[in-house]
Specification:
homodimer, mainly alpha, two-stranded antiparallel ribbon
Chain lengths: 304, 304
C-alpha cells in the first residue's frame, strides 16, 4: 500500500467514526416529543441496521465535496448522516427474503434474521423517512433553498428513477438478462444515483452555482461507474476471506455484469479511464480537490 | 342521510376525482430524465397501490384546511397527493404477509398478491420516497420555508414517532395488550399522525402564524381520535356487506381497542364529545370553517 493510500484510509476511518457517533445521537433523538410511546424494538433495529460498521463512503464524499467549496461542515455531517440512513434502509430491505434473501451482512445476521421480517420492513421504512427529517431539521444549519434542493435530489436519487427503480430492474435481470446499455443504466440507477447525490450535495450545501453542481454531479456519476466495475471485478478476482463476503455471487446467480461480458482486462483499463476522467473534471479546483481525487482512486482500486 | 351529509359526500367524491387524476399524472412523470430505463412493473404496481379508489380523506383535509386560510389551491392539491402517496405506501407495506397479511383491499387483490412481495416492498418504498419529491418539486408553488416545514412535519408524522412507530407498537400489541393510555398513544401515532399533518399542512401552505398551525394541528389530532373510535365501533357494529371489508377483525385477533374496553355506549358519547371539541377549536374562523366541521362530522358518524 502506498503512503498516500494509507493516509486516505486513515482519513476515511476517522470520518467514519465521526459519522457513526452522530448517527447514534440522531437515532436516539428520533422520537419527538419524548413522551410518545417508544417502539423500542424498532429503534433498536434501526440502530442495528445503520450502525454496523461500513466504510461510510457516501458521507465521506458529502463532507469532502462540501470542504472543496469551504461549505458548512456541520451541515455536511448532518446531510451525510441522512444519506447513510437512506443507504442503510436500502441494505435492510434488499436483504429481505423476498428480495436478495441474505442472512449475513459484514459477518453479522441481517436485520430480519436478528429480529423478524416485519421489524426489518419497518426499520427500513423508518430509516428512509428519517433521512428527510434530518435534512429538514432546524438542527441542520442550511438555508431553506438548499434544504429543498437536497430533498428533491435525494428523493430522485433514491426513488423510481434511481435506487428503488434500479433494484427492481436488478431483480428482473435475474430472469431476463439486459444488454450492455441496460446493465449500465440499471447500475447507474441502483448504485450510481446515491454516489452522484453525495458529490452534488457538497456543491448544494456550499451554495455553489449550477456549473459547480453539474461538475460534481458528473464526478459522482463517474465514480459511481468505477465503484460498480470495481465491485464486479472483486466479485470475480478476490476471495471471500479478503472481501469479507461471498465471491462469485454474480456468476452463481447468472447475473450479467459488464466485467462478465467484457472481461477483466477491459475492466482494469476502464477503471484507469474513469479515474482519469474523474480527475480531469476536478482540474479547475486545483490542489483543493486532492481528497476527492484520492477518493476516486480508492473507489476504483480498493481491494475489498 | 341529511341533506348536508349528502352534499358533503358529493364534495368529497368530487375532490377525490381531482386527486386521482393528479396522482395518475404525477406517477406517470415520476421517471426523470425520461431516457432512464423504466422499471415498468414497479411503476405499474405503484399506480395499482395508489389508485385503487378510496375516499381520499387526507388530501380533502389538506385542501379544505388550505382553503380556510385562502392559501394556494394548486399547492394544496400537490401536497394532498404527496400525503396520499405516503398513506398508500403504508397500506401496501401493512398488507404484506410479514405484517397484517391481507389478500384483499377494497375487494381487490393487494399489491403483493397481484405482483409479488419484492414488488410490493419496492412499490411502497417508491411511494414513500415520491411523497417528498412532490413536496420539494418546482411544480409545487410554495416558498422554500413552507416546503421545509412540510417535509419536516410529514417525515415526523410518518416516521418512528408517528405512523411507522405506531405500526410497530400495533404488531407488538397482538402479543402483549397495552393499557388504555398505551392504546391511545399507539393509535395517535399509527392513524392520528397523518390526519394531524393533513390539517396542519393547510396552515403551513397558507403561510399562517404558529397560532393557526397549532389550532389546526389540535383539530387534526381530535378528528384522528374520532376516526379511530368510529373505526373500532364499525368493526363491532357493522356488517361486511356495508363496510366492504371483514368485520369483527379486532376481536378475532384479540386486539385491544378503546371501544372493546369501554363499550359502544361510551364510544358514541365519546364521538359526540370529540366532534364538539373539534367544532369549538374552529369557532374563531366562523362560517369559513364549515367544510372542516362537516369533515369532522363525517369522520365520526360515517357508516363505512
Amino acid at each position: 500500500m502506498t503512503k498516500s493510500a494509507d493516509a486516505f484510509e486513515k482519513s476515511l476511518s476517522a470520518h467514519a467514526a465521526i459519522v457513526e457517533a452522530r448517527l447514534a445521537t440522531l437515532l436516539d433523538a428520533s422520537i419527538r416529543p419524548a413522551e410518545l410511546a417508544r417502539p423500542a424494538q424498532l429503534i433498536e433495529a434501526m440502530h442495528y441496521g445503520a450502525l454496523n460498521g461500513g466504510k461510510r463512503l457516501r458521507p465521506y464524499l458529502v463532507m469532502q465535496a462540501t470542504q472543496l467549496f469551504a461549505g458548512n461542515e456541520e451541515a455536511a455531517l448532518q446531510v451525510g448522516c441522512a444519506l447513510e440512513c437512506l443507504h442503510s434502509y436500502s441494505l435492510v430491505h434488499d436483504d429481505l427474503p423476498a428480495m436478495d434473501d441474505d442472512d449475513l451482512r459484514r459477518g453479522q445476521p441481517t436485520v430480519h434474521k436478528k429480529y423478524d421480517d416485519a421489524t426489518a420492513i419497518l426499520a427500513g421504512d423508518g430509516l428512509l423517512t428519517y433521512a428527510f427529517d434530518i435534512i429538514a431539521s432546524p438542527e441542520t444549519p442550511l438555508p431553506d433553498a438548499a434544504k429543498v434542493a437536497l430533498v428533491l435530489e435525494l428523493s430522485r436519487a433514491a426513488g423510481i428513477g434511481g435506487m428503488a427503480g434500479g433494484q427492481m430492474l436488478d431483480l428482473a435481470a435475474e430472469k431476463q438478462q439486459p444488454d450492455e446499455r441496460g446493465i449500465v443504466l440499471l447500475q447507474a440507477m441502483k448504485t450510481g444515483a446515491l454516489l452522484r447525490f453525495a458529490c452534488e450535495a457538497g456543491a448544494i450545501i456550499a451554495g455553489r452555482p449550477a456549473e459547480d453542481r453539474d461538475r460534481l454531479r458528473r464526478f459522482g456519476e463517474i465514480i459511481g461507474r468505477a465503484f460498480q466495475v470495481a465491485d464486479d471485478l472483486l466479485d470475480i478476482t478476490s476471495d471471500a476471506a479478503t472481501l469479507g463476503k461471498a465471491t462469485g455471487k454474480d456468476a452463481a446467480k447468472g447475473k450479467a455484469t459488464l466485467v462478465g461480458l467484457k472481461g477483466t482486462d477491459w475492466a482494469r483499463s476502464e477503471l484507469d479511464r474513469l479515474v482519469s476522467e474523474a480527475n480531469a473534471l476536478l482540474a479547475p479546483y486545483g490542489a483543493e480537490a486532492e481528497p476527492l481525487k484520492e477518493a476516486a482512486h480508492f473507489i476504483a482500486y480498493r481491494k475489498k
